[in-house]
Amino acid sequence: MKINRESIHFPSANLLVWYDQEKRDLPWRKTSDPYRIWISEIILQQTRVDQGLPYYHRFLSKFKTVFDLAKATEDEVLKTWEGLGYYSRARNLHFTAKYVVSELNGLFPRDYEGLLALKGVGPYTAAAIGSIAYGLPTAVVDGNVYRVLARFFGIQTSIDETPTQKQIAGLAQEILDKGRPADFNQAVMELGATICTPTGPNCGNCPLRGGCVAVQTNNQACLPIRSKKIKVRTRYFYYLVLFYKGETQVRRRPAGDIWQGLYEFPLIESDASLSDEEILIACNLNSDDVVKSVSDEYVHILSHQRIIARFILVERKKLKNSNYITSAVNKLSSFAFPRLINRYLEKQNFVID
DNA sequence: CATTCGTGGCT
DNA sequence: TAGCCAAGAAT
């Protein structure tokens, strides 16, 4: 079945009526302050509303203006971001705040190109800030847009391929309601998040169902088409929990790898599983170190990585490696992998004061 | 252009 | 449950 996409009418009016009635009550929809819009868009990159919402409140209560953010230290920013992931977003946020204050007098660029030039702001975020804060007629293209438009227009090529991505971006710009770009952009995303969901879309309540090719051909479950598979890398982490005079030793993770600059217990990393004996040899402990326990495996699944961690609890009699920082965990800046670390610490009944 | 960068929720 | 996915950007 061949479909002439030029002949398909996209019912923008239906979508906007639906959005006006059904949109969620979200804090960044009550402001046109570009600073707040910017913060919300960075937080929401690859992040669900439910997950990002508490961080939005925390971040803005701590850094109320771009000047406050520019004045903060990077450690303060990272600590506020702790647990949200993709930490380069936080570093870029801080960098851009300093840039906007020092070079732009604290005023955000008002056009798409200027926004796009900001570190951490790509095509999606520039279009989002431009339309939401300034009413610019620039269509956003995100995962929701790919899904909603691939279904509505019945696009049978993979959204992982550049030509399809360009096609959808072009369609999004064509159908954009130039009178209400902010609402239209958010309406498509809202529809993708609440009705036109990846699995089990609620087509019966969809304002686009009348013209949707996927509905007409009962193809919702097959669209959009993806061609790339996620490959998972397995890594073995052997954390050394070195107690010295009641405190633990930590270090910062190096640049060029996951969680760069965040704090963690010193660790031995391996691509293969190590035996208990191999672990102790690799730890390079000496007679001043008393091994109290070696934990079972903690398996932690990330999107692209499977981390298998074990903890080696050591009572240290002498301070050996001065590169490590001796401190209680929560006095530090953002800690890498907090969820797994806390699972271990809680099981050991360690109190983090 | 392919890969990397987190975390959490869902099926 | 193991994979998939989310208001993407940088390299």
Description:
By secondary structure, the chain is α+β, with helices and mostly antiparallel strands. It has 2 domains: 5-222, Endonuclease III, domain 1; 233-346, Nucleoside Triphosphate Pyrophosphohydrolase (Alpha-Beta Complex). 41% of the residues lie in helices and 14% in strands. It has helices at residues 12-22, 34-43, 49-62, 66-71, 74-81, 88-104, 112-116, 123-134, 143-152, 162-175, 181-194, 213-216, 276-283, 338-347; strands at residues 233-244, 247-252, 263-264, 267-270, 289-294, 298-301, 305-316, 325-327. α9 (143-152) packs across α10 (162-175) and α9 packs across α11 (181-194). The structure holds a DNA duplex (11 and 11 nucleotides).
User: How many DSSP E strands?
Assistant: 8
Using the CA coordinates, give the radius of gyration: 25 Å
CATH class assignment of the largest domain: Mainly Alpha
Note poorly predicted spans.
none
Cα distance spanning the termini: 65 Å
What is the element string, with H for helices and E for strands? HHHHHHHHHHHHEEEEHEEEEH
Helical stretch tally:
14
Report the major sheet. 8 strands, mixed
Strand content: 5-15%
User: What is the CATH topology classification name of the largest domain?
Assistant: Endonuclease III, domain 1
According to CATH, the homologous superfamily of the largest domain is Hypothetical protein, domain 2
- The coarse silhouette is globular
* Structure class: alpha+beta
Helix content: 40-55%
Please, what is the average pLDDT?
90
CATH architecture of the largest domain: Orthogonal Bundle
How many domains comprise the coordinates?
Answer: 2
